[in-house]
Amino acid sequence: MTLLLRQHAEEQFAEELSALERADAHSRPPSWRLSPWAVETYLMGGELEDGFQIEPKYFGNRRLIQIAIATLTTERALLLLGVPGTAKTWVSEHISAAISGDSTLLIQGTAGTSEETLRYGWNYARLLAEGPSQEALVASPLMRAMSAGAVARVEELTRIPADVQDTLISILSEKSLPVPELNIEVRAQKGFNVIATANSQDRGVNELSSALKRRFNTVVLPLPATAEEEVEIVLHRVEALGRTLELPAEPPALDEVRRIVTIFRELRSGLTADGRTKIKSPSSTLSTAEAISVVSSGLALAAHFGDGNMHAGDVASGLIGAVIKDPVQDRIVWQEYMETVVRERKGWSDLYRAGRDVEATDS
Predict the structure, then answer these.
(1) Tell me: the pLDDT tens digits for 87-132?
(2) What is the pTM of this model?
(3) Following DSSP, what letter does each residue of 106-142 receive, concatenated?
(4) CA 227 from chain center: how many Å?
(5) Less packed terminus of the chain by CB within 10 Å, N or C?
């Protein structure tokens, strides 16, 4: 039996999707597996009439998710924008899984993404042997989504070179993809649409053209509004990761997670939680995703090299690694925060000692 490190959303939550499909009495757009109501329930969680519990996938503003889903019922594509760690990829994957039952029609944007990656390529062995033919054509995930009436995903759109980005303009406008070598065109079936994600801090890297922006409805996914909301997200995701990785450790203590989230939020905002002390912010993003990583790393240390319970010493190295991306400037920011905030805060002396021990080891 093959043990997958990570399942696709439609595999991991197949039972929930099937339960929603059975209970879904609302109207569904063409080619959609679930109605917009059911897609929202899948993302935000809820209880069905038969008592079946749907686990929330996204913790945040329900209205933003409704807008995102409603956009995909129209001809406009969806652009999820936000700073790193705001669950853009997570949301796009789960929306695709709920609508199309397939979240794998994915194009990962990089500086090396070519026009062929978005359009189509060729099996060059067959092309040389037989010439241009349907059999020699290698369809891109975008082309396959058009043929199937499914949702395609384009990750990190602003990482793709500007001239390649503009390949999407005619596809999103005309809903067709010409293949001049075969004198044919692939026309989008009902249900086809595109979800793109972009990092708002990448503006200016490969800025989207005005023409391309007009083809998208943009939804900005914010960082969690409150500390308690962020703590809930971290606990939920860490618990799921712990089950997947089969970590033999106790679930993280709420106080430990709250402390990590507090540190991240204070350093992001440049102000302590009580609003009394201004502090410097590091160059790192310190997103919720990084908080999840710090806690997961701490659990792994506690499980394999500790007593199974996560302590300050288990999270200190991950915490410092998350904060210090620039070894000069960020280290100064972290040391000042340690001395002015962590050292003076009641009940945080163990974290202060653990942090100092890690820095002593590194130096």
Answers:
(1) 999 999 999 999 999 999 999 999 999 999 999 999 999 989 888 9
(2) 0.89
(3) EEE--TT--HHHHSEEE-HHHHHHH-S-TTTEEE-HH
(4) 20
(5) N
CB 80 within 8 A of CB 107: no
Q: Are 244 and 6 in contact (CB under 8 A)?
A: yes
Q: 9-220: which CATH architecture?
A: 3-Layer(aba) Sandwich (3.40)
| Residue ranges of domains in the chain | 9-220, 227-362
Q: What is the per-residue pLDDT for 256?
A: 87
CA–CA dist 75, 77 (Å, integer): 7
pLDDT for res 200? 83
Q: pLDDT tens digits, residue range 327-350?
A: 899 999 999 999 999 999 999 999
- Residue 244: CB atoms within 10 A of its CB come to 13
Sheet holding 151-155, edge to edge: 106-108, 151-155, 193-199, 77-82, 216-220
